[in-house]
Each structure stands twice: as structure tokens, then as C-alpha cells.
Amino acid sequence: MAAIIGALLIPLGTSFERLRLELGRKQQQSETLRLARQLWQERLIRSGDGQPRSVINRLNATLQGEQLVVELTVITTQSLSLDEQEKYAASLAAALGRSRDSLRLDLIEIPTVPQNLTSPTADLFVPEQPKSAAEQQAEVLSRFDRQIRSLPLPGGHQMVEGRITFGAIAPWLLS
Questions:
Q1: Among 12, 7, 6, 3, residue whose Cα is nearest residue 164
Q2: Which of 123, 78, 135, 84 is nearest to 105 (CA)?
Q3: Rg (alpha carbons) of the chain, rounded to whole number
Q4: Over the stretch 42-57, which tens digit does the pLDDT of each residue have?
Q5: Residues 72, 36 contacting (CB under 8 angstroms)
Q6: 142 CB burial (10 A radius; 0-12, 13-18, 19+)
Q7: Which residue would you say has higher pLDDT here, 139 or 82?
Q8: Where would I find the beta strands (DSSP E) of 52-171?
Q9: Which of 7, 58, 93, 126 has the fewest CB atoms within 10 Å, counting from its CB?
Q10: Across-strand partners of 54?
């Protein structure tokens, strides 16, 4: 029985480690998208005279090696100057705690007239709130519980209790 459980723990531990890394990556990506959207709304959604200037149509962030690539498509009534683009990218890099050189901004501007920015579609681009660490941990524990209870054990035995310990030295420890 101990050998069966031991044999299951190795792939289970590997799966948990992959899941932990994926959750961390998704949290980082969600935070990047949230900050990118927030900075855009604070600085570039309106022109100097208070009129609607732009709205984010599409936003994506990916890590390519050590460089963070932020792809941003905006619908705008007034193109951004190179100086405005650079200031936005520098502000985003600073907010993320990255050097300016480690962030690449790929900006696509779609020209429009001001009336189109005040349409109801501008309200459709609401960022998705990332799940908290506690919510993500609860999901992982729930999946673990379902998986461990579905394991067939010899002799009709049933798993009664299991415990997962999260820590810095041994990130996922099953006992």
C-alpha cells in the first residue's frame, strides 16, 4: 500500500509543481494587464480638453525570454506621439518593477471619430479580476481531494485523510 501511494506521489508532486508555476504565471499576467489598463485609463483615455481620446480594444502580455511584450490595440481619435508612447511604456515598466529595456510595447492605433468612443461598446472592455491566492489554493485543494479520493486502492481500502503542506523549502508536501 505504501509503495502504491509512494509511486503516485512522484507524478502528483510534478503535477502540483507545474500547477503552482502556471498559477504564478497567470497571477503575474493578470497583474500586468490590470496595471496596463489602469495606467492607460489614468493618462490616455481623455485628451487635454477632457474629450474622449481612446479606448483599449485588445490587450495582451507575454513573456519572451526576459522581455515582457505588451500588445495593445486602441481605438483613438488622436494618435499618440512617440514621447507619449515612451512615457506610457516607462510608467508601466516602473509600476511592474521592471527596467524599461525589459518591456516592449507593441501599440496598434485604430483611428476613429470622437462620437464612436462615447458609444456603449466602450463599457464592454472591463478587465477580468484575477482570483486571489486563497481562491486559487482552494481550487487546487479541491482538485487534489477529488483526485486522491478517486484513486483505486487494493483490498477495497479507501483514503480517509490527506494533508498538503505548502512551504518554501518543499513547496508541495503530501502526508
A1: 12
A2: 84
A3: 23
A4: 988 888 788 888 889 9
A5: yes
A6: exposed
A7: 82
A8: 54-64, 67-76, 103-111, 164-165
A9: 126
A10: 76
Computed over every residue of the chain, the mean pLDDT equals: 80
The answer to whether residues 107 and 87 touch, using CB atoms and an 8 Å cutoff, is no
Beta-ladder partners of 95: none
CA–CA separation, 161 vs 148, rounded Å?
9
Burial 55-67 (b: 16+ CB within 10 A, else e): bbbebebeeeeee
DSSP 150: T
Q: Which DSSP symbol is given to 174?
A: E
What is the DSSP track for 12-72?
HHHHHHHHHHHHHHHHHHHHHHHHHHHHHHHHTSB-TTS-B-EEEEEEEEEEETTEEEEEE
Which pTM value belongs to this model? 0.59
